[in-house]
Design a protein that fits this description.
The chain has 168 residues and is of the alpha+beta class. It has eight helices and six strands, in the order αβββαβββαααααα. It has helices at 3-6, 19-24, 67-77, 87-100, 103-113, 118-130, 138-142, 155-158, and strands at 7-8, 11-12, 14-17, 34-39, 46-48, 51-57. A four-stranded mixed β-sheet has the order 3-4-6-5. The longest helix has 14 residues, at 87-100. The N and C termini lie far apart (41 Å).
Length: 168
């Protein structure tokens, strides 16, 4: 139903994100009537059959290989908006998913994160620090303003290095 919005001439131009991915990753039990798609060029939301299709801007190049990493970064980006769950639970699950990534995938997700909001970069940095990959996060750390604090309720309960990343 949405394949034409995800691929063009056999090339990936978008990916599923939002509620459908939060549900697939076990972050919520809700399934909505809105399908959210990450794309480099966004357009206005529209209806197709019983679904509303909306778009979020993705600044990174989208490839088949990096879609799961972009979806995980989108989870961190919208962590406060995931319905039917507590932020701590979403962060705990996300941290486990980051820990399961290969070294190469962790390097890639850090590179992709540089085009995301500072709070997303801080959350990823804190997760990587917690799982013992802190020595690799210098580029993420340097991309953040040292005097900015990120208000993410409950993060310090899950991320032991939250304060090191200015997460309150």
């Amino acid at each position: 139903m949405i394949k034409d919005l995800l691929e063009r001439d056999g090339k990936v131009v978008g990916y599923l994100t939002g509620l459908s991915i939060y549900n697939k990753l076990g972050l919520t039990t809700q399934v909505g009537s809105v399908i959210q798609i990450g794309r480099q060029e966004v357009r206005s939301p529209f209806k197709r059959e019983r679904y509303t299709i909306s778009f979020v801007k993705q600044k990174n190049t989208i490839t088949k290989d990096n879609i799961p990493l972009l979806q995980l970064l989108d989870v961190l980006r919208f962590i406060k908006k995931i319905p039917d769950t507590k932020i701590e639970e979403s962060l705990s699950t996300s941290k486990q998913l980051v820990a399961k990534l290969s070294d190469q995938q962790q390097e890639t997700i850090m590179r992709l994160a540089l085009k995301y909001q500072p709070s997303t970069r801080a959350l990823l940095g804190a997760m990587l620090t917690d799982i013992g990959r802190g020595e690799k996060t210098e580029r993420l750390k340097n991309s953040l303003n040292p005097i900015t604090a990120y208000a993410i309720p409950g993060a310090s309960k899950v991320l032991s290095s939250a304060s090191e990343w200015s997460i309150r």
